[in-house]
Amino acid sequence: MASGPDPEEPEDNNPFAAFPMFGDLSRALSGQGPLNWDAARQFAMLGATGGQSESNIDPAVRVAYSNLADIAALHVRDVTQVDHHFPEVRAVTPGTWAHEALEAYRPLLTELATSLGASPDLPAEVTGDPMAQMMAGLSKMMAPAMLGMSVGSMVGTLAQRAFGVHDLPIPRTKSEVVVLPQAIDAFAAQWDIPVDEMRLWVLAQELTGNVIFGADHIRELLAGLVRRHVGAFRPDPNAVAEKLGGLEMGGDDPFQALQQAFSDPEVLLGAVRSPEQLDLEPALDAAVATVVGYTDWVVDAVAARVIGGDALKLAEAVRRRRVETSPDDVFVERLLGIRLGSAQVQRGKAFVQGVVDRAGDTGLAILLTTAGSMPTPPEVDAPGLWLARVTGD
Question: Who contacts 89 (Cβ-Cβ below 8 Å, separation ≥6)?
Answer without folding.
Answer: 65, 66, 69, 177, 178, 179, 203, 206
